[in-house]
Amino acid sequence: MTVTTPPSSPARPASRRVVIAIVGCAVLVALGAWVGSLFGGMIDLRVYRMGGSVLLHGKSLYDAQLPGSGLPFTYPPFAAIAMVPLAAVPWGVALVTWTTISVLCITALWRTSLPKTFWSFVTQRKRTAALIALTILSLLLEPVWQTIQFGQINLLLTAMILLDLVRPNNTKLRGFWVGVTIGVKLTPLPFLALLIVTKQWRALRNAVLGLLATMAIGFAIVPHQSWRYWTDVILDANRVGGIAYTGNQSFNGFLHRIGDDASWVQPTWFVLSVVFGLLVLWLARRYWLADERVTAISVMALAVLYASPISWSHHWVWIIPLGVSLIRGVNRRWGLNPAVVTGVLFYGLFVLRSIWWVPYRDDRELSWTFWQSIPGNSHLIVGMIAFILLVITSRGLPKPSAPATSDPA
Question: Could you name the Gene Ontology cellular component terms for this entry (predicted)?
Answer without folding.
Answer: plasma membrane
